[in-house]
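Worked example 3. Consider a protein that binds 9G3.
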Amino acid sequence: MKQSQTLIPTLREVPADADIKSHQLLLRAGFIRQNASGIYSFLPLGKKVLQKVESIVREEMDAAGAVEMLMPSLQPAELWEESGRWSTYGPELMRMKDRHNREFALGATHEEVITSLLRDEVKSYKRLPLTLYQIQSKFRDEKRPRFGLLRGREFLMKDAYSFHSNQESLDESYERMYQAYSNIFRRCGLNFRAVLADSGAIGGKDNHEFMVLSEIGEDTIAFSDSSDYAANLEMAAVVTTYTEKEHSGKEIKRIETPDQKTIAEVSAYLEIEAEDTVKSMLFIADENPVLVLVRGDHEVNDVKVKHAMDARIVELASPEQTQSLLSAGAGSIGPAQLPDDITVIADHAVKAMGDIVIGANEEGAHYVNAKLERDFSVSKFADLRFILEGDPSPDGTGTIQFAKGIEVGHVFKLGTTYSEPMNATILDENGRSKPFIMGCYGIGVSRTLAAIAEQFNDENGLTWPVNIAPYDLHILPLNMKDEVQSTTAEELYKLLKDYRYQVLLDDRKERAGVKFADSDLIGMPVRITVGKRASEGIVEVKIRKSGESYEVQKEELTDKLQDIFRQLSNI
Ligand code: 9G3
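Given these inputs, the predicted complex is written out as structure tokens:
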């Protein structure tokens, strides 16, 4: 490709509203341009990289036995009504009406569409297992799109769906997809971890997120410093054991704590440690009020509350709900003298506490010397707190550290979450009708591109890994007016394309400084500079990432490049 014939609008300055490296560089290097908040055009270089990521995804999906198809982005609302999601999703689900006033969703994901297809086309267990995938734009009206392609409102996703007549078959497909994802992210050169995750509102059982380690990641990973245990912070189980504290035997006593609301305020006011107080938080779990108790120095993990209550939806009670149920504000509630329709559950750490300070369910009042079971009861103890750095790893090996991650993939065991409500069934070997057992597997393709740019850059610009770069080689004739340089460059361009390299030729009439700066910015793995020494048949070969450069006779160029690309390709 000749640069005079393509569109690579590089920028000198860092765009104002881009606040992470990958977003800044993809804009400055002319890979993407924003059309609206969270909505981007992929310019030629960006499209080329997208194609490289897609082809790695396709190769690994096909090798894992999945078959590619393509579903529509326009989805009839009826399907989402069947699954019950038309009403559970809010403004994030983009909706529209056609000319007949019929309602549609703009595809945020495709469980409903694919399940309705299989319901119509597959009736017998003999046709299973079947795994179908697509690579297609998704629409999610994020409240705060940010970080460029990392959280957009229209983005490219590979979504795959597997169909089974039994759990073993799902487990096997899940394992194959898990391996395929590891291959994909390794071939993209990414430093990633597969972490235990929560299935969120879409139900289903165990599932894993594939996280690229990055300090700008939105998710926190809890991992062991001496084993391969890794989990999303919400899922990381706490196995800490607590030493029992003796209770003084003193009677519970009500004390005035005027305007003392937070644990920090109350413990400072009473001159005690936060760990001698109990934090009480009121949640609504599938419409049932539940008071959750954790030790004052811990934080309630609402995902663990959801699992402990076996609820689909768990939300913090609103101030109004708290006031009407407990006749006090959030800073003064506690487990003593509760209305009996409020369940009380507590984190394991509470069981080992001695004299406890709790809210008195009265503005500006607390109880001291409260004793578990004497002054308040707990219906169930469970692991309800967020794990902390330094806690023992749940697998018993090492201690927990935190890292930030960018979620680039997510694999789910869905079970019958969609096939049940949508009546998508097959006849099993005994002729009995039963719902499909499903799995679903997503990769953020455009997000993966941004994660690669986030990991592969230096102070001069992008440093694409060989598997991903838009072109293998960038030829830079420094002075297009110099006959020798321009013909040598043209000659090498043709020769190297014959050698099946993907070549970008900077044939613009720009000064050398501009060409070098742009070349460093867009980041092809290897640059060939055709300068003054072209008259002696010598060109310079430079490796972008390492900065190594060589003076090479034209005749030796293809051999030298073969060595270089062999060295660059074994990641
Ligand atoms: C929606 C909107 C946003 C969503 C969803 C639905 C996330 C939604 C979860 C998934 C699960 C898997 C198939 C590929 C892999 C991920 N955000 N999820 O279902 F309507 Cl607005 O997408 N889907």
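Take a moment to read the result before moving on. The radius of gyration is 30 Å. Residues 89, 92-93, 108-109, 140, 159, 202, 410, 440-442 surround 9G3 (CB under 6 Å).
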